[in-house]
Amino acid sequence: MDNLNYSSDELADLYRLLGDKTRLVMAKKLSNDYWTVSEFVTLFEISQPLVSQHIRKLKDASLVMEKRVGKRILYRLNPNAREHELILQLLKPLQISSTKQQ
């Protein structure tokens, strides 16, 4: 946790990104395992384009990485992201059920 000094703009951007309930739950799920877009579609009961948009925002911030396995694309929280440890600390108290999150 040596690199936990952030500007107010950096923290505000991160909090804004994770301030969306869907992305917050996605980040929690992605911190524990690889997930596909279709798995999130099923979990949240929202459209594939909307899930893809949320993932794109997380990827644009370098918080999520992807791994291709055949035709499938698997996503996971990026352990090399500067904010990785901070995000894990923010997500630690978050309790989520396996039911619809929205």
TrEMBL record:
GO molecular function: DNA binding; DNA-binding transcription factor activity
Keyword DNA-binding (UniProt): yes
Matches recorded under Pfam families: HTH_5
InterPro entries in UniProt: ArsR-like_HTH (IPR011991), HTH_ArsR_DNA-bd_dom (IPR001845), HTH_MetalResp_TranReg (IPR051081), WH-like_DNA-bd_sf (IPR036388), WH_DNA-bd_sf (IPR036390)
HTH arsR-type domain location: 4-102
Keyword line: DNA-binding, Transcription, Transcription regulation
Annotated PANTHER family: TRANSCRIPTIONAL REGULATOR, ARSR FAMILY, TRANSCRIPTIONAL REPRESSOR SDPR
Family annotation (NCBIfam families): HTH_metalloreg (NF033788)
This protein's name: HTH arsR-type domain-containing protein
Originating species: Jeotgalibacillus soli
